[in-house]
Amino acid sequence: MRAVAKAALAVTLAAGTGALAAPAAHAAPAAPAAVTAASPYQHGPDPTEALIESARGPYSTSQTAVSSLSVTGFGGGVIYYPTTTSEGTFGAIAISPGFTATWSSLDWLGPRLASHGFVVFGIETNTLLDQPDSRGSQLLAALDYLTQRSSVRSRVDASRLAVAGHSMGGGGTLEAAKDRPSLKAAIPIAPWNLDTTWPEVRTPTLIIGGQSDAVAPVATHSIPFYLTLSNTPEKAYMELRGASHFFPQTSNTTMAKYMISWMKRFIDDDTRYSQFLCPAPNDLTISDYRDTCPV
């Protein structure tokens, strides 16, 4: 992606130089450069660093609890959504907690992500001990419920869905992306999975790891997962400096900032957010960043 962009720029500059050096005496005016149309799914104001680092985005949000008794295939949870009904439907993301954890361990993420124009479904799992393959199936079951039966289904664009999760929920995120290639984005966070190769995944994937993770060490989990994502159209690996396995369980600005940017870029096809992903960010809180430089 980076090389293509540079090549295009070189061609443009070369053409412009030639035109200046030898203009035709009576040549017709050059046609204006084509303007790339904004994505039809683009929501919200032009992004700034301050906007995506803030605790809340531009949208007011509400939430609704989903009882485990009213669903099948997963354990219920909480749905967060923008309150506006004037901007059409929004993309959605289902998020799974990790081994022995409940959604409350990640619930700061719900309103934060929803306030940037997404419907967010923080799920409870069937049991606290569910393994990654089960969590992946549960994430997909939650998305099906969200788009087909939930009280907010009319607010969701069923063609623009994504998954995320922490620890075994992060391993489940990769499982879900493998099983449903139509997903627009996947964000495994400190992911744990005994399967370390993921060539089956064809979803744009951002993996977030912790430099000091002793439960799912990045050397044996996040980095091998990233390196084997050989068939994704875009991928990135972000490692948080000094972070333990449990960094997602408290409010984390760097994590939220790049989750928002990735979701905006791939769920909403909003290229205004490419600037935060390419070139690679140089935040002091990031110890390692690798990517295919989406533009």
Give the SSE map.
Layout: H1 2-21, H2 49-53, E1 61-66, E2 77-82, E3 90-96, H3 109-114, E4 119-123, H4 132-148, E5 156-166, H5 168-179, E6 185-189, E7 205-210, H6 222-227, E8 235-240, H7 253-266, E9 286-291
Parallel strand pairs: 3-4, 3-5, 5-6, 6-7, 7-8
Antiparallel strand pairs: 1-2, 2-4, 8-9
Helix pairs in contact: 4-5
How large, in whole angstroms, is the Cα Rg? 20 Å
Helix segment tally: 7
Low-pLDDT stretches: 1-36
User: Biggest sheet, in brief?
Assistant: 9 strands, mixed
Strand/helix succession: HHEEEHEHEHEEHEHE
How far is the first residue's CA from the last residue's CA?
7 Å
Helix content: 25-40%
Give an account of the 3D structure:
By secondary structure, this protein is α/β, with parallel strands linked by helices. Helices cover 27% and strands 20% of the residues. It has 7 helices and 9 strands. Strands 1-2-4-3-5-6-7-8-9 form a 9-stranded mixed sheet, sandwiched between helices. The chain is globular and about 45 Å long. The protein starts with a helix and ends with a strand. Residues 1-36 have low confidence and may be disordered.
